[in-house]
Design brief:
Blueprint lengths: L1 H12 L8 E2 H9 L4 H15 L4 H33 L7 E2 L12 H7 L14 H14 L8 H11 L3 H13 L4
Length: 183
């Protein structure tokens, strides 16, 4: 429904007023490089200093696990950024977004753009900075994750959880959607 899409777009970027200005490639690459040996060593040393040497072994293991998770999560985002830049014939460093690497009005990560980006205004291109494209892309994302007419409150929560894994986020989106007219 339009009221849910509008609520998400408002929460994500104030309907495009705050889409971020950082090159997303830098942010995503930093996260994708978490498992690089010098980054691991620096993080372990920093945390060992803060926690004390008695936790070094557990800390090493936890830091390595987290680094592998970040690498596996964000390396595909880096590759997707290059694919987007190639499709749009732009410099990958010219894609602005948040410090988390999300971009556009709906604040998609690059793989989200590739999977759910939709030409909502019929101009033959998908720009998440265009309101019609952003709304259509957000709606497509929600539908792909299970939103359908007549789903109950818990199903709605699960679909929005796929968009952002935060209970306060879900509560805010649903509360705001309830304040907006349904269309």
């Amino acid at each position: 429904p339009g009221n849910v899409v509008a609520a998400i777009l408002h929460v994500e970027s104030r309907c495009g007023r705050n889409t971020g200005s950082e090159p997303i490639l830098w942010r995503l690459a930093r996260l994708a490089m978490s498992a690089e040996p010098s980054n691991l060593r620096r993080n372990v040393l920093r945390h060992t200093f803060l926690q004390g040497p008695s936790v070094a072994t557990d800390l090493q293991r936890a830091t390595e696990d987290r680094a592998r998770y970040l690498e596996s999560t964000f390396y595909p985002e880096v590759r997707a950024t290059f694919e987007i830049a190639e499709r749009l014939h732009i410099d990958p460093l010219s894609i602005p977004g948040s410090t988390s690497g999300a971009f556009g009005i709906p604040q998609f990560l690059p793989t989200g753009y590739l999977r759910f980006g939709t030409d909502g205004n019929g101009d033959g291109q998908v720009s998440l900075y265009d309101p019609a494209d952003a709304a259509a892309s957000c709606a497509r994302y929600l539908q792909a994750h299970g939103w359908a007419a007549g789903i109950d409150h818990e199903q709605r929560r699960r679909v929005i959880w796929a968009y952002n894994h935060s209970t306060p986020y879900i509560d805010t989106v649903l509360a705001l959607a309830n304040l907006l007219p349904r269309y």
